[in-house]
């Protein structure tokens, strides 16, 4: 057994109870990739990615056997791995629906209508927070900030895809699509690109392929400021000369 890495005072613990859970060959390849990022005597640092691999292999949730299997691999006290698995909402201790709806309710989303989104989902699916539909297709979870505040309200699906700029009507349509076996396109559901303002960009609208028309890269290559100033002065002089000539001819 390698020496304990992050909490030296933890010197003994009961043996992990892994049951019949074990990584498949594919999961082991992923686990080895994660473990390779850390020194042998700090392999406990790989606990979160290994729990994630175990959850994905186990149809989207962690059992006690799966959690303690990870503890066995990392030679950690089982209680320490249970503490991690029960703290983060990314880990499911019960089997979720095939489509796991995780609705953000932190301040920006709340101010933009997250409560209405949540109510629409509950009514549409007939379930409450933490529940799964009878057919096992959908589950619902209220979560905290997912970092897409600019496009609030939003939800994450299956711990991966973000669906943003939601309304109750849009969420109901998305649910209908999943029921029909479709995979709705993630991202803004109102056509926004990235986090640009509603209605499109309002600044830097004159930027060309190489930057602003009067910027240092306007023609695709860098032009020093003094050269740009000299060119502008020459252009102005030419313009003034042309204006004077026009007056003289008249």
Automatic annotation (TrEMBL):
CDD domains per the UniProt record, alphabetical: TRX_Fd_NuoE
Name under which the protein is recorded: NADH-quinone oxidoreductase subunit E
Record bears the keyword Metal-binding: yes
Biased composition (Polar residues): 241-250
UniProt cofactor(s): [2Fe-2S] cluster
InterPro entries cross-referenced by the UniProt entry: NuoE-like, NuoE_dom, NuoE_N, Thioredoxin-like_sf
Domain of life: Bacteria
Assigned keywords, A-Z: 2Fe-2S, Iron, Iron-sulfur, Metal-binding
Protein species of origin: Rhodovibrio sodomensis
Family recorded in the similarity comment: Belongs to the complex I 24 kDa subunit family.
Annotated region described as Disordered, given as residue ranges: 179-218, 230-250
